[in-house]
């Protein structure tokens, strides 16, 4: 019960009601004490005026009866600047303190009442007050507060029981109201979510907003929109998956056909006919691009890309191998490919996957520089910060056009050079993200382009 919303609300309701009762109880006790003392002072004044009205001495037993009826031990009345002991008796003990009722502050009354409530035992106090209805200037009386303490305890217990009854009834009604207005609608939303989750492709399971409470109605509307968009997304993904499977089959068969055609086209280059010699290289290049497109499409369609096998790899020898391979591939083009990685730097990565990432970035830079026909330079820099290792591939190529920068990492959209598939950078970013890192285009201007790879040092949560 305590783990439910209604149960916790019930507990909080009882707690808050009791706090409110305590805030009411303390002033009530102070008021009860003030009324108790005021009533005895009024009785003492009546008894003293009755005695003064006779003008004669009265027997001791009558005086004792007047004091007992008034609930005081003695009475001192001040009239016309003179203090007169009107009624008196032997005090059972010393006067502990003086209480002035003429103009007490609320804090004083509460403090005195609280102290007396929690202090047991007899206590004699001297009470000073103004006589009622102009019966003098001042009246004083000694009062034994033993009965006051007992009366305050009885009054406090009555308030306690009354508070428990009020808090119980209030908590019950609030519990039922919250359960009816909040808990049950929330449970209905949960049931709807579970029902929809059992068959998210079923459009008949979309929730229909019915709540009259604005907040719950907003939640139902939001859930309805979410379920509607999810169904549309699932249908679209299913169609794309079917289309992807069909494209993969077509690409696989087409790759085999194109590979055969490429092997046959190689023989055309050995034909002596001038026209054939002029046309054959273009045919071979076109077939090569078609093969690359089909292979790239198949590679991108493999969703089961293995997770990275992370290990600590010395970076400088790793980059030596990549740069050497790209230098051989550059042919006669004057492109300097080098790296500036510190020899002692060790990076945690999957060497096979990072070889594909950096090889792709360097290859793209090399092809971009080669397309200009001018010499160029490609430099791979490396460093580390407190939280990550940083690799940058910098080139002196012509830079990327603005349109290409917008979709640079989008599959089939980020191709810049003619004949490209637009898959290389998309795959490279996915591989870097598999390391928990990021691949970003840092800048691309007329002076060149810089790609930034960041690999985290800490554990990726």
Outline of the structure:
This protein has helices at 5-54, 60-70, 106-117, 146-198, 214-266, 274-300, 315-329, 351-372, 402-406, 424-434; strands at 74-79, 82-87, 95-100, 124-129, 138-144, 311-314, 335-340, 346-349, 376-384, 388-395, 438-445, 448-456. It is α+β, with helices and mostly antiparallel strands and 461 residues long. Helix 1 packs across helix 3 (106-117), helix 1 (5-54) packs antiparallel against helix 4 (146-198) and helix 8 runs antiparallel to helix 10.
Give structural notes.
The chain is α+β, with helices and mostly antiparallel strands and 461 residues long. The protein folds into three domains: 5-169, no CATH class; 214-300, Helix Hairpins (Orthogonal Bundle), CATH 1.10.287; 311-456, Histidine kinase-like ATPase, C-terminal domain (Heat Shock Protein 90, 2-Layer Sandwich), CATH 3.30.565.10. Helix content is 56%, strand content 17%. It has a five-stranded mixed sheet with strand order 2-1-5-4-3. It has a five-stranded mixed sheet with strand order 7-9-10-12-11. α1 (5-54) runs antiparallel to α2 (60-70), α1 (5-54) packs antiparallel against α4 (146-198) and α5 packs antiparallel against α6 (274-300). The relative contact order is 0.06. Its EC number is 2.7.13.3. It catalyses: ATP + protein L-histidine = ADP + protein N-phospho-L-histidine. Residues 216-243 form a coiled coil. This is histidine kinase.
């Amino acid at each position: 019960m305590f783990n439910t919303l209604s149960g916790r609300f019930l507990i909080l309701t009882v707690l808050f009601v009791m706090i409110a009762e305590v805030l009411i109880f303390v002033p009530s006790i102070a008021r009860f004490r003030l009324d108790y003392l005021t009533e005895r002072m009024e009785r003492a004044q009546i008894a003293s005026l009755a005695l003064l009205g006779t003008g004669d001495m009265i027997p001791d037993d009558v005086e004792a009866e007047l004091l007992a009826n008034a609930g005081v031990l003695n009475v001192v009345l001040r009239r016309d600047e003179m203090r007169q002991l009107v009624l008196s008796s032997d005090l059972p003990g010393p006067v502990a303190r003086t209480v002035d009722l003429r103009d007490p502050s609320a804090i004083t009354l509460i403090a005195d009442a609280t102290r007396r409530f929690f202090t047991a035992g007899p206590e004699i106090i001297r009470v000073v007050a103004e006589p009622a209805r102009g019966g003098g200037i001042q009246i004083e009386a000694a009062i034994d507060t033993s009965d006051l303490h007992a009366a305050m305890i009885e009054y406090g217990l009555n308030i306690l029981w009354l508070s428990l009854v009020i808090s119980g009834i209030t908590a019950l009604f609030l519990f039922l109201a919250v359960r009816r207005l909040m808990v049950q609608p929330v449970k209905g939303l949960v049931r709807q979510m579970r029902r929809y989750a059992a068959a998210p492709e079923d459009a008949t399971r979309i929730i229909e907003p019915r709540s009259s409470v604005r907040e719950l109605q907003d939640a139902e509307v939001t859930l309805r929109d979410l379920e509607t968009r999810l169904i549309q997304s699932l249908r679209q993904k299913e169609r794309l998956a079917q289309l992807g499977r069909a494209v993969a089959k077509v690409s696989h068969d087409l790759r085999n056909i194109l590979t055969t055609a490429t092997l046959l086209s190689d023989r055309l280059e050995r034909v002596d006919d001038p026209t054939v010699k002029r046309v054959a290289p273009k045919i071979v290049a076109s077939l090569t691009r078609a093969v690359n497109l089909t292979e790239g499409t198949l590679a991108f369609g493999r969703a089961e890309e293995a997770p990275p096998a992370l290990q600590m790899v010395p970076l400088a020898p790793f980059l030596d191998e990549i740069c050497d391979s790209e230098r051989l591939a550059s042919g006669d083009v004057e492109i300097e490919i080098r790296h500036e990685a510190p020899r002692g730097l060790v990076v945690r990565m999957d060497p096979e996957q990072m070889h594909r990432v950096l090889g792709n970035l360097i290859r793209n830079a090399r092809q971009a520089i080669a397309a200009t026909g001018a010499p160029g330079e490609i430099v791979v820099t490396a460093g580390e910060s407190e939280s990550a290792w940083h690799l940058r591939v910098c080139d002196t190529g012509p830079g990327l056009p603005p349109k290409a920068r917008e979709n640079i990492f989008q599959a089939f959209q980020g191709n810049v050079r003619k004949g490209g598939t637009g898959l290389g950078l998309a795959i490279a970013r996915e591989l870097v993200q598999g390391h928990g890192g990021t691949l970003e285009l840092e800048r691309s201007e007329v002076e060149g382009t810089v790609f930034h790879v960041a690999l985290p040092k800490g554990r990726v949560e």
